[in-house]
Amino acid sequence: xxxxxxxxxxxxxxxxxxxxxxxxxxxxxxxxxxxxxxxxxxxxxxxxxxxxxxxxxxxxxxxxxxxxxxxxxxxxxxxxxxxxxxxxxxxxxxxxxxxxxxxxxxxxxxxxxxxxxxxxxxxxxxxxxxxxxxxxxxxxxxxxxxxxxxxxxxxxxxxxxxxxxxxxxxxxxxxxxxxxxxxxxxxxxxxxxxxxxxxxxxxxxxxxxxxxxxxxxxxxxxxxxxxxxxxxxxxxxxxxxxxxxxxxxxxxxxxxxxxxxxxxxxxxxxxxxxxxxxxxxxxxxxxxxxxxxxxxxxxxxxxxxxxxxxxxx
Length: 313
Prior knowledge:
This protein is of the alpha/beta class. The protein has helices at 7-20, 36-40, 52-62, 75-80, 82-101, 137-156, 182-192, 211-223, 244-252, 267-272, 281-287, 295-308; strands at 27-29, 44-46, 66-68, 107-109, 112-113, 160-161, 163-165, 167-169, 195-198, 205-210, 235-236, 240-243, 259-262. The strands form five sheets. Strands 3-4-6 form a three-stranded parallel sheet.
């Protein structure tokens, strides 16, 4: 797994190690720091995914049969360094797809994002197939990546699978650099300082998902029979859609005295270009996707998790 020090990788590595065995899952990272649980529970290596030779050597030396390619530069960070976003997000995907053509790799997971949508996409009930005109470099790389995945599946028979992740909410690791960061920061500040200055408007609605649901969706997709997979670009995926104000209110009901102000910055324009609600009926039909966490359940789990990890100290 590349990007193992990131938000998704930190939680997904332990899930896969429990499923496949601790020694069977190699956590690869390049920036940041591996979580202790990831570093201590199985093999790990430092890997620059923009180095094709190093990537190829890592796969060949370890007889890798599945790759979870999570390394990416997120939306807000990508706007500050679009060249690097292109290289990391798209160049490394092309590398791993080429590796899969000529190696032991049998199945590949690569995450896309709701950032592939844009202001011309329907904002409510956004369908699987629709107008895709992203306005960020992150979205551009994800859209191009979906096309690459589809091409390699059709042209070379690569079993590549992908999800258009919504904003992911997790207490285990906060990577930063994304437009939906407020959905995590709000919990951290509620327990740390009792107040939060939100960088989007109070009425901003975006698709969000508690990390536990996202991890389960990833595993369910990767274990589904190949014949069931009808989308080789990337599946729409959703669980929750609520306003930033509704999230603040849910936290305030549980954290006495918590206050939130709303002062939009450049990320507001990105948020406004993304859908409010998503139609993920193809995922539900093809491999039985169903979310389990609603807003209240997610809020309870996040506050408990953040407090347990000491972020409220």
